[in-house]
Design brief:
Elements lengths: L2 H12 L4 E2 L2 H4 L17 E2 L4 H14 L2 E5 L18 E5 L6 E5 L4 E5 L4 H10 L2 E2 L12 H6 L7 H4 L6 E7 L5 E4 L13 H4 L8 E8 L1 E2 L3 E9 L2 H14 L4 E8 H10 L13 E9 L4 H16 L3 E6 L3 H12 L1 H6 L8 E3 L5 H15 L4 E6 L5 E7 L6 H5 L2 H14 L15 H7 L2 H14 L12
Parallel strand pairs: 2-4, 3-4
Antiparallel strand pairs: 1-2, 5-6, 6-10, 7-11, 8-9, 8-10, 12-14, 12-15, 13-14, 13-17, 16-18, 17-18
Helix pairs in contact: 1-3, 8-10, 13-15
The protein binds flavin-adenine dinucleotide.
């Protein structure tokens, strides 16, 4: 089948609303969120049903055309757009598959299509007096299919786990166009290999997720949010341990924040102000959820903070007194990605070490980067409660950003060598995509890499699904 014949068949399957071929209309799908990756496509497919996704995949398999699945296009590793040299590919956007198929309040489950925007799922759960805990700053645009394909983390992993932990069942279109229907709400099912986990975190390289059954939880009745200045990162980790013990493990979020990123948020994104009167070097933004009646939880949080202040771990703290104040605290955290965008493309790292070793990582990585690239500005923040730090280097103010970026591979090696030496991960939650592909090949043990390649060859022997990403 020629490319032209394939395109004609794809258009027939998709109908007039289901594709874009005009260069201008396609443009926004073909560049990633950071503007760092872009590539061409023969067509942007916008299927409305699982059957249409399967039909597209079958045609592309026959014609040997690659398919790049895309959700909300908020990924940070270049996985969701074609590569510059990809001349024979289509981009397949799941955005029109955005229905909530059903919500079972008694089962605490919700069945959603892949293109549902994360925030709309949170809202659907809330409307039924339930809670869907996956939460990240991109939640207004990222889609659940993308969240599952990247195994997204976010701010509540500490209590509820990663995206993987929130899934009971999946529906997936395979590279040959067959539909695997694993849409179950069962809590227990030990009938052989758990296939859904192959596709979660696979970044669209093994199948296209079209729907999912997700776990819901009781809605939190009491919420305590605190913005805290701490002595240093080791005081933060000691505070986390005390808060978990002192609140009956009610802590759901625990974010470590350095002063440098706060300054960028206040300078670059409107509508933020400092919750504390004085400047400090390190902060924690933490949240705890409790049951009916807020006084017990409030007392427990205040008790832990009071003792930590006496012991010199905490310097100052503000507890949110209203929903608006809670939102203002979280806005600061959510604006951190946006704040960096104004400073040029950073050299980023999304690393994880065991929680107790976060301070050691910072003690080693900050001086190592200062020695390797003295002019760079370092920002460090992230989900310290999960051992996950976003450790980024920004170009010097007024410096040449392109020259700065030629240092990326060298600086990545400095940071990742430290991480791997500490038994950590070079990609905690953002995935591999294109950005970390060569680093994965460098650090992942060869048996693990070969097993991943074996899986890819078995499910996608012609390498048509998101080729060149991850592996
Ligand atoms: C401001 C901001 C904050 C962020 N914060 C976090 C955070 O706290 N934690 C975190 O983990 N990430 C974070 N991210 C990264 C990003 O939001 C997540 O990776 C998110 O899960 C991506 O979802 P998406 O729908 O945008 O996917 P996309 O970017 O469209 O795609 C991501 C990958 O999944 C594949 N894919 C998408 N949909 C499907 C599908 N239906 N089937 C198969 N493959 C598919 C794509 O091919 C690509 O490889 C943040 C990003 C931004 C911009």
């Amino acid at each position: 089948m020629t490319d032209l014949e394939a395109i004609v068949q794809l258009k027939e399957i998709l109908g007039p609303k289901g594709y874009l071929e005009d260069t201008g209309a396609m443009a926004r799908y073909l560049v990633d969120w950071r503007g760092a990756y872009r590539g061409p496509a023969l067509l942007v497919a916008r299927p409305a049903t699982t059957a249409e996704v399967a039909g597209c995949m079958r045609v592309c398999a026959l014609a040997g055309i690659a398919v790049i699945p895309q959700g909300g296009n908020t990924g940070l590793v270049g996985g969701s757009v074609p590569r510059p040299g990809d001349t024979r590919c289509i981009l397949l956007s799941l955005e029109r598959m955005n229905a909530v198929r059903r919500l079972d309040a008694l089962d605490f489950t919700i069945t959603v299509e892949a293109g549902c925007v994360l925030k709309s799922i949170q809202k659907a759960a809330e409307d039924a007096d339930r809670f869907f805990p996956l939460s990240l700053a991109a939640e207004g645009s990222c889609q659940i299919g993308g969240n599952l394909s990247t195994n997204a983390g976010g701010i509540q992993v500490l209590r509820y786990g990663m995206a993987r932990d929130l899934v009971l069942g999946l529906e997936v279109v395979l590279p040959n166009g067959e539909i695997w229907s694993g849409l179950t709400g069962l809590r227990k099912d030990n009938t052989g290999y758990d296939l859904k986990h192959l596709f979660i975190g696979a970044e669209g390289t093994l199948g296209i997720i079209t729907a999912a059954v997700l776990k819901l939880f009781p809605r939190p009745r009491a919420i305590e949010t605190a913005f805290i200045a701490v002595r240093d990162p080791s005081a933060a980790i000691e505070l986390l341990s005390r808060m978990r013990a002192g609140t009956g493990d009610a802590v759901t979020a625990f974010e470590l924040i350095d002063r440098a990123i706060l300054d960028l948020v206040y300078a670059n994104v409107a509508g933020n102000s400092d919750p504390l009167a004085q400047r400090h070097d390190w902060y924690v933004l933490t949240e705890s959820f409790g049951a009916e009646g807020s006084t017990g939880l409030r007392d427990a949080v205040e008790r832990v903070l009071g003792q930590a202040m006496e012991d010199g771990l905490v310097i100052d703290a503000a507890l949110a007194e209203s929903h608006a104040q809670r939102q203002a605290f979280w806005k600061i955290r959510e604006d951190m990605a946006e704040a960096q965008k104004h400073e040029g493309v950073p050299i980023r790292h999304d690393i994880a070490v065991t929680v107790s070793r976060v301070p050691e990582f910072l003690e080693r990585a900050i001086p190592a980067c200062r020695a390797a690239l003295p002019d760079a500005r370092i920002v460090a923040f992230g989900h310290a409660g999960d051992g996950n730090i976003h450790f980024n280097l920004l170009p010097p103010r007024g410096g040449d950003p392109s020259g700065f970026h030629t240092e990326m591979a060298r600086i990545n090696r400095v940071v990742h060598d430290i991480v791997v030496d500490m038994g950590g991960s070079i990609s905690a939650e953002h995935g591999i995509g294109l950005l970390r592909r060569d680093e994965l090949a460098h650090y992942k043990p060869s048996l693990a890499l070969e097993t991943m390649r074996l899986l890819k060859r078995t499910l996608d022997p012609r390498n048509l699904l998101n080729p060149g990403k991850v592996l």
